[in-house]
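Example with several molecule types.
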Amino acid sequence: MVLSTVGVIGGGQLARMMIPPAVELGITIKVLEEAPGMSAELAATGVGDYRDLETVIAFAETVDVVTFDHEHVPPAILRELVARGIPVRPGPDALLFAQDKLHMRAKLTELGLPVPDWAAIESADELAEFLETHGGRAVVKTARGGYDGKGVRVVSEPHSVDDWFLALAEDGRGGALLVEELVSFRRELAQLVARRPSGEVSAWPVVETVQRDGVCAEVIAPAPQSAGRIADLAADIATAVATGLGVTGVLAVELFETTDGRLLVNELAMRPHNSGHWSIEGSTTSQFEQHLRAVLDLPLGATGSRDVWSVMVNILGGPADGTLQDRYPAALAAHPMVKIHGYGKEPRPGRKVGHVTASGDDLDEVAYQARSAAAFFEG
Amino acid sequence: MVLSTVGVIGGGQLARMMIPPAVELGITIKVLEEAPGMSAELAATGVGDYRDLETVIAFAETVDVVTFDHEHVPPAILRELVARGIPVRPGPDALLFAQDKLHMRAKLTELGLPVPDWAAIESADELAEFLETHGGRAVVKTARGGYDGKGVRVVSEPHSVDDWFLALAEDGRGGALLVEELVSFRRELAQLVARRPSGEVSAWPVVETVQRDGVCAEVIAPAPQSAGRIADLAADIATAVATGLGVTGVLAVELFETTDGRLLVNELAMRPHNSGHWSIEGSTTSQFEQHLRAVLDLPLGATGSRDVWSVMVNILGGPADGTLQDRYPAALAAHPMVKIHGYGKEPRPGRKVGHVTASGDDLDEVAYQARSAAAFFEG
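Resulting structure tokens for the full complex:
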């Protein structure tokens, strides 16, 4: 049977951006949103808590395959869906690697993939020991629940994360923190791939991501000076991760390009990712269309760039007064070539409320266009 | 005030294809569909007869501006909306030129725009007279209600359209038929433009349309051998029509390129048009995004081609057995570069149920890709 109805758990902008390719491809998309009026409202057929088994099952029974706007659905619920014969993509076993950073680090190490030096630590003493052997500084991350810079601290003092140890102890489930070497990197890259249940994997060009305050601010596609070794290596690593972890759908692998020319895996996301928004206009097949094709086990589309350069700039926060739309007349008039994306979210400091993408032959011009268009939505 | 909610009357595929750009641009789209489950179902907030004043007003009061999937809403209803202060784009006066071919021919003639020789006829005698002065053959069209080859006859005998004269007489409203010279044309072209209420007009490259049995089968963008005089003339004509008729939104002008190198206006459509579907992937701004921008009076986007060539092929009828989706695995596997569009409509002989678009540098290759992909959905 050819599957044709995708159910997305979570009503955020990633679910929203799956709507256009679903409409164009002629497949049905349904969204379980957390509350009324979320970003993906248009396709919402259910409202409720994704941590509630009954809610999720009632929704899942109306679709052919379940996928996600985020990685927070509890594994026990996902396993119950699978037990009931509902395809879940990515599946619970794969998703666990995105939900738990210690689990992910252990698996990537087992697969022989390049990662920063790391350890699981359960006390300030163990952190002290790691600091001692890694130049006195390190990055500590909570294994679960972190994103956009949350749950990440750069530390040089063994007692810097005692509050996290305490929280873990109080949580009762125990568990450890992840500590990693502070990688000396030249820049950050992201490699997106998509993988079908049948095993087909397709990679987009590797991109450069620019973070500000731990949040993605800008993406340049392809990453400058990546042609050849870096591009091949990034694609090979992400393909190995997707295959090794049994991912279905889009997988984003965030990478450090070290000052000595190595690529190390930083983070994973098993869903469309901010670093792939450029692909909506910039690639023959966008990450959102590809994600739908992958979870429906349809043949994947071509992933080449449609322009020499694409630059995506996030709209973070949005206008201090009024809505994004208030700024459209000026922004669209000044930038007829730039594509402006709004997520239907209320402006709020630091919140991702939209993005813009510019494309063309000249990177300086393209970056100027994108940054200048995004600036219309600030302040 | 910046308008941000567009209401579309009619739930067909043109309304459906406005959904993706609305979602991406972050504006709200609502659709009044004729019956449940139509092509634009996802955005439907109302169901009912567009010829019913109450139904249309109830819908229109929930949006900032009203626009259309088709041109069939009765003028009296449109004028009532305007009287109530609801922006209608295109407006009733402009739309009348698309609803009534005699009205359109008279206006284009008044504007000095190139049209085939024509006359309004009310009897077989008048038709006989026209045939006599035009080589014994002519095209007769009903002034209202025709589309996709319906309401059009090539005639050589004065009594060939007596049934139409009879119907007009029985209708009680009287009225005439349009008779036109049979134009000797080399090919058919279509020129799309968009116009804002503020007067800004933007034109896409002129395209070549290939009709089969009076229905658009294929579109080549830009029209081969059109660079220079033909492209400029087509854009000038369509701009003059849009301005002269006060059109807002997308206007499609179907043109004959005559064997002696003139361009003559054949038909008009005041909405996104089949001849512009290529622009979804092929232009920086698609006709559907531009239509939304135009009716919201937002600055228009750039309309250049993103590739040297784009070819759009309609999926007419669709599979004799099963759904479009049944053919996706084979079609997508064979054509990873081609974009396949399904309209969510049941296959039925002759019905437009989808289209495919291919783009690239080599017209032969692009046309092959598009035709071959479309063929997966036949028979």
